[in-house]
Amino acid sequence: MNKVPNNRAWWLVLPVFILVAFSALIPLMTVVNYSVQDIFGPGNAYYVGTEWFREVLADERLRESLLRQFLFSGAVLAIQIPLGIGVALMMPKSGIKASLCLILLAIPLLIPWNVVGTIWQIFGRGDIGLFGWGLNALGLDYNYTGDTVDAWLTVLLMDVWHWTPLVALLCYSGLRAIPEAFYQAAEIDRASKWAVFRYIQLPRLKSVLVIAVLLRFMDSFMIYTEPFVLTGGGPGSSTTFLSQTLTTMAIGQFDIGRAAAFSLIYFLIVLLVSWVFFTAITHLDKEK
């Protein structure tokens, strides 16, 4: 006797699909609609096809911002992933010290993004900021508002301070999930700390690191508030990332059609690179 499949469980998923449609698909379709029109005002728009996409792709600002964005995201991953692993390895395994470390690590993550920019704006000032004043007292000519290298490094340091705890917390949770029997076997074999990390801890952290890499890449690639508050995109355009270029185009210039095309290209870049990261990491995991 053939069983009749019961599909009533799909009714439980229906509210989720409706919510996703309103929160993601409908706004996305609106942007797609704007990207092929030249909008002069309410009810006054003309179809232009792919004209805005061609103009955006030929825009020098987009290429400069894209290169700046990739350099920043690459530096973020190169610093925060190893640093987060190192912090997680040094944290106590249990007890009151472990709880205290977890609380202290979580503090930067609780601070709103605009407040983070304001904190570092004051912190980096050469006259009243401890960081800026300290560097100048050491003989270093530090000025993040006037020097492009100082501004770039300050934004990078600010992001490292703000988001490395997230990587550390993820890695810490992965380390705590490793059974104690693995460590006992390594101790019996007199394995070194490096061998324990290389053959026990790192392989068990791969799934956590996939999440950490994807989250940090996507977030760093869409960074806006912190550098905008700290440097305003300057000096010049040294800290003007893709999100700031898009905001200037959409709000400052009110160029809705071009901004919509820009945002779709932005979305596809984030989606493509995230897919490449995920595919590469999971492929390496399968090979081993």
Automatic annotation (TrEMBL):
The chain crosses the membrane at residues 12-36, 70-90, 102-123, 151-172, 207-225, 264-284. It is found in: Cell membrane. Pfam families: BPD_transp_1 (PF00528). It comes from the Bacteria. InterPro entries: MetI-like, MetI-like_sf, Sugar_ABC_transporter. CDD domains: TM_PBP2 (cd06261). Belongs to the binding-protein-dependent transport system permease family. It is a multi-pass membrane protein. PROSITE patterns: ABC_TM1. Residues 66-277 form the ABC transmembrane type-1 domain. GO terms for biological process: transmembrane transport. GO terms for cellular component: plasma membrane. It comes from Marinobacter salarius. Keywords: Membrane, Transmembrane, Transmembrane helix, Transport. This is Carbohydrate ABC transporter membrane protein 1, CUT1 family.
